[in-house]
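User: For my dataset I need records formatted as: sequence, then structure tokens, nothing else. Please produce one.
Assistant:
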Amino acid sequence: MDLDYAREVLRVEARAIESLLDKVGDAFERAAKLVLDCQGHVIVSGMGKAGLVGQKISATLSSTGTPSHFLHPAEAYHGDLGRVTKKDVLVALSNSGETDELIRLIPRIREIGAPIISITATAASALGKNSDVVIEIGRIEEACPLGLAPSASTTAILAIGDALALCVQKERGFDKEQYAFYHPGGELGRRLAKVREVMRSGDRNPIVSESTPVLDAIRKITAGRAGAVCVVAGDGSLAGIFTDGDLRRLLERDPAGVNRPIGGVMTKSPTTIGPDRLVAEALRILREKKIDELPVVNEKREPVGMLDIQDVLGLGA
């Protein structure tokens, strides 16, 4: 296996992306504004390898606040053209700018009235001449040993598509909370979820007063299958927390201490978090403070939940 050639492929593709830096100018800015101002959907279309890249670009747009879907140019001629409205924007992908299925689609898009952005090698191509905005990527040397298989060119198209989508995201002010809304599943969604979505509440968040005997508090912890109990003052605000670690330390120095009021042996003024903060932030606090439980309090500092390290394990470093 020629590993030196594999490294050369990476160099060729890296050079292709680097060559795009000079292509980001007025046309790119006009394209980004069209996408940002789009009142409908951003329709991405391309044939073959460009089409596969287009599906990824469309997915990136959708996940970063720009409604989008992919339109196969051949399927468009068999009814899928009905997905396009004049409120949409078409982003057409073709390195050569001469892809027959895509070129045949353009007049229909013109009739509908949707503006067309093309990402192609040159504005002099058939696609470029029939687009409202052309982002030129230039003639790119393919990494294929035959110089034929789309490789560096599709990498360049993907990079431009990412730059377009992410610039629009930044301009739109699309934040972490909005991003989390569109990514509710998996590790990413869980890290970006709000604390209130994963915290323990109700019976799983035991709460006692400062005068409660430690033994009674332990029973509440056990019943709630929790690792700690919140201790509140007379006004209902959080006064402290009593954890398994506090219990072990109490038993080491005073085995009879389980009959004492918990207010005298609790950990006072514990670290807390609000219910509308991100789980990722809670995870950082748990790790930095080297604690297993994090009380969740409202604006009055009343305990409304408990975040246990077990609830957020496996969410990354």
